[in-house]
């Protein structure tokens, strides 16, 4: 059994952020995930930096480079955006504009699409699945899980209730819903293997808001928040080797919009 020792949550906030400390992170154990625009972003990062990423969890996202080819509205709703150019661009950019696409063959991907999601529907996610596996053949089909039987709206599925969460079929703020399914655990276990039991009590680690300016010049200009959150377990603070998972929120899930609910 293993635990994910370090999780970045790249979301904005409004309080004083601190300089991020150094931790004993194993770079080869880095993965990404995201919902909606964050799902698209996670795929972009996964493909462009495939040598540094081992897997991805995509909730209501879509094909790589989709928005670079057409209006973003054609990459949403119940459309089926073409992927021929996405595949050819990945191959032609491989090893020059992006990391070698052969790295993707080692990745594990967990995809979640709700049957009631009309914002980024199953048809869009199906095109992403085809890009990864059947048509693009970048990732072995055995490494890709496509869960599309949840009766969920445009939301991140959980298996517990929290203040402000919605019913599973709802598509409204904070876009987090109790669907009787632990989406975060499913993603992490597919990428990393069995996890330790979830701790529903007091946490031994701590959440830290840190300044992203050290890593991203002109964050706002580049579409990023000036600060982000990281959860650091006590074992990681004490020097144990950590794994790193980076989670990207959707368009209206920033700290300014929903507080710490995504955290």
How does this model look, in words?
Helix content is 20%, strand content 22%. The protein is of the alpha/beta class and 263 residues long. It has one domain. An eight-stranded mixed sheet has the order 5-4-3-2-11-1-10-9, with helices on both faces. Strands 6-8-7 form a three-stranded parallel sheet, with no helix packed on it. It is globular and about 45 Å long. Residues 1-16 form the signal peptide. Keywords: Signal. InterPro entries: AB_hydrolase_fold.
- Computed over alpha carbons, the radius of gyration is 18 Å
Helix coverage percent of residues? 10-25%
Note the total helix count: 6
**Beta-strand fraction estimate:** 15-25%
InterPro entries: AB_hydrolase_fold
Keywords: Signal
Signal peptide: 1-16
